[in-house]
Amino acid sequence: MRLHVKHMLIIPIFFVIVLFFLLHNDNKRLLVPLNDPFYNRQQREYHVTTSFPDTRMSYQLALKTSPILSNLNVTKDDTLMAWSKSNTSICNNSFTGFAHLFAILKGVLLDPSFSAGPQGGERIESVLNQPEEKEFLTLKPGYFQIRCDNNTEDMKYKFQHGDHLVKWMAALKLVSKMPEHQEVDKITMAVTRYEYANVYHTMTDWYNAFLMLLFFNVKSFTANILFIDSHPQGGLDSIWTTLFGGYGHAGQLTKPQYFKTLIWNIQGYKSPMFRHNLPSIPHIEIFRLFFLAKHNVPITKRLNCEKLHITFLWRRDYVAHPRNPRGIISRKVKNEKELEDSVHKLYPNHCIVSLRTENMSMHDQLGVIARTDILVGMHGAGLTLALFLPKHAGLIELYPKYWSVDNVHFKAIARWRNLQYTQWQNMDNKMEFPDYFTYIAPSVIQNLLSNIIGLMCKPNKDKER
Does pLDDT of 305 surpass 50? Predict the structure, then answer.
């Protein structure tokens, strides 16, 4: 049976309630083993004691309130624990940096008169061919201001080389008195985006933001997102609102803003998700559930080897940012229909789906992915969707001859999620065609599918993972 994407997107009557208390309830709690020494059974809280003065930090997730969470084993995370222990505070905790990766500022003024650059958020048609360097703000000392009685206090806290937080730190000024300002009560997270139109790199920002709200125990996992960059409008911008509640552009501010709490997010390139050699990364399954729940996508798929859902993810030319006005992209498959037909003939009882994401909402993309057993596609940002495959699923990643298999972004995702994974690279120059098209023999895909199905459906395999 062959279905088009639109047939996969019927909204079920029963919407997922997973993470309801995580997202909407003030009484967040965490699943942990009963023998965990950090777990307070009476209060049902998970505590991490930190060393900065008069502060005790906890991060909490949810009790076992949903069948979807019933098999989840969430324990304390070594990475977040290490972050909490590696901290430096300045000016009575007005500034606290963690692990030289991120920081939280209490009572900070942002003065836009100490910045220069475009406002950001423009329509992409109005800035075609705009150089990337024009899409970042220049910050001067005084852009960030915190009150400090001792103006000579050491401000030499260092962030990692190549991190824009180094420039933010240079723009932080200690003052004895705050000027007139507008006050922002809600917790705000400052973010500078790189490759903002690329879903993989934006996913690192979303994941980092999620970790920050988890780390600082922010209720309801919502925050104002403040873009300290000048990128034009992008197709992924609205997802910031879906996930965290809203966003704004620092370049559009005209008056000083006083933030009671401002989090400096981890740079995308410094994300745990960008460290592809790691055997695991913090709370990736909880992030998956959070992301799906925020998009109201149910998680009900179970492995049925008699009727698998096989999804081909095809790449198409499209204009995503000003520096590619023709919208030409690489790593496209020349014979898509031939491959679909061959797989349908080989597996007539399975559901074969073709997915093209460039004109689909994230909700609709996730609706397909959450029902996919095997995802097949060329190396490209779209394979980031493997984060949201069912836990039993498999990923087949394809490479043209001109692209290195050392790009292991999605192999890493498969490892972190314990998915079945296999890859293939074309080695025949005759199979590469103009405009970045690659011809792939149907037998290649058939063999790859046969191998991965054998791994997924071998006898005695636990199909309810």
Answer: yes
Structure confidence by residue, pLDDT tens digits, 54-86: 333 333 343 233 333 344 454 668 899 999 999
Secondary structure element (H or E) that encloses residue 23, with its range: helix 20-24
Element (H, E) at 285: helix 284-294
Which amino acid is located at 199 in the chain?
V
Count of beta carbons in the 10 Å neighbourhood of residue 427: 9
Q: How far apart are CA 351 and CA 423, in angstroms?
A: 22
The strand ranges marked E within 229-366 are: 247-249, 257-264, 309-313, 332-333, 351-355
Using CA atoms, how far residue 271 sits from 114, 209, 210, 401, 410, in Å, is 28, 10, 11, 29, 15
How far is Cα 463 from Cα 207, in angstroms, rounded to an integer? 28
Question: Is there a contact between 402 and 376 (Cβ–Cβ < 8 Å)?
Answer: no
DSSP sequence for 193-237: -SSTT-HHHHHHHHHHHHHHHHHTT-GGG--EEEE-S-----TTH
Cβ atoms of 75 and 36 closer than 8 Å: yes
**Global pTM value:** 0.83
Q: Where are the alpha helices (DSSP H) in 315-395?
A: 336-346, 362-369
Given a cut of 80, whether residue 49 has pLDDT beyond it is: no
Amino acid identity of 261? Answer: T
**Run of H or E residues at 47:** strand 45-48
Alpha helices in 370-426 (DSSP H): 409-417
CA distances for 404 relative to 128, 351, 447, angstroms: 30, 31, 22
Cα-based distances in Å from 458 to 303, 394, 451, 452, 462: 12, 13, 10, 10, 9
- List the Cα angle 320/322/328 in 5-degree steps: 55
